[in-house]
Write a structure and sequence with these properties.
- The protein contains 8 helices and 7 strands.
- With about 260 residues, it is an alpha/beta fold.
- It folds into 2 domains: about 5-185 and about 225-255, NAD(P)-binding Rossmann-like Domain (Rossmann fold, 3-Layer(aba) Sandwich), CATH 3.40.50; about 185-220.
- A 7-stranded parallel beta sheet has the order 3-2-1-4-5-6-7, with helices on both faces.
- Strand 5, helix 5 and strand 6 (about 175-180) form a beta-alpha-beta unit.
- Helix 1 crosses helix 8, helix 3 packs parallel to helix 4 and helix 6 packs across helix 7 (about 205-215).
- The radius of gyration is 18 Å and the shape is globular.
- Pfam families: adh_short.
- Keywords: Oxidoreductase.
- It comes from Piscinibacter terrae.
- Belongs to the short-chain dehydrogenases/reductases (SDR) family.
Length: about 260
């Protein structure tokens, strides 16, 4: 199915990105990782699955870095057959208190980076008449929450971008879709839980339950592995005609 194809997963040294990379590697895809922090650990996890693994440390807020990363994937792996745009950051504040530099960074990393990777990946996918672009959006690409104006704007933007590029590639073997997770217990979310516990003077476990209870009716976190398996499905022949969807995996959040 995707054996020996190459998947570039941005923001994949931890959390959702690493979960997706591991799921694709289990199906035989070669993986190019990207992200900050520990690289050796995640790389070893993927290599243990017997596939070729590369890494590029592009800063996803910088178009020149992204172009260098795409050149690296083309030169070392023959291009990205599967592109997973996952890199993302968050900042929480009321709009009147929102630092403009934080707004710019969130839009750059959560939204503009996907434009830059996609515009550079699509020509190679068209040439092969096969490709998969999977944008990791969020339930916040479908509904809003207070104090997250930049994040919500960026994720709504990525859903719209997904639909537009899906239409442009609709008659080709290239599909473009978005996954919209609700609460996933990643380092990003763990930080929000820890901050909440400290702010409200409650235990971390109580902060977790309170967080889920506000939004996610299942009261369960989605796992990176579950999102990875959805990405595998979107890469399969069964999903050849799944185009332009925003597939929420959110424990019923958006159903309310």
């Amino acid at each position: 199915m995707i054996k020996a194809k190459t998947a570039l997963v941005t923001g994949s040294t931890s959390g959702i990105g690493l979960g997706i990379a591991l799921s694709l590697a289990r199906q035989g895809a070669n993986i190019v990782l990207n992200g900050f922090g520990d690289v050796a650990g995640p790389k070893a996890q993927v290599e243990a699955l017997g596939v070729k693994v590369g890494y590029h440390g592009a800063d996803m807020s910088k178009p020149a870095d992204i172009a260098q990363m795409m050149d690296y994937v083309r030169n070392e792996f023959g291009g990205a057959d599967i592109l997973v745009n996952n890199a993302g950051i968050q900042h929480v504040a009321k709009v009147e208190d929102f630092p403009p530099e934080k707004w710019d960074a969130i839009i750059a990393i959560n939204l503009s980076s996907a434009f830059h990777t996609t515009r550079l990946a699509i020509p190679g996918m068209r040439a092969k008449n096969w490709g998969r672009v999977i944008n990791v959006a969020s339930t916040h690409g479908l509904v809003a929450s207070a104090q997250k104006s930049a994040y919500v704007a960026s994720k709504h933007g990525i859903v719209g971008f997904t639909k537009a590029v899906a239409l442009e590639t609709a008659t080709t073997g290239v599909t473009v879709n978005a996954i919209c997770p609700g609460w996933v217990l990643t380092p990003l979310v763990q930080k929000q839980i820890d901050d909440r516990a400290a702010r409200e003077g409650i235990t971390v476990d109580k902060a977790k339950v309170d967080l889920l209870g506000e939004k996610q009716p299942s009261l369960q976190f989605t796992t990176p592995e579950q999102l990875g398996e959805l990405a595998v499905f979107l890469c399969s022949p069964a999903a050849d005609n799944v185009r332009g969807v925003a597939w929420n995996v959110d424990g019923g959040w958006a159903a309310q």
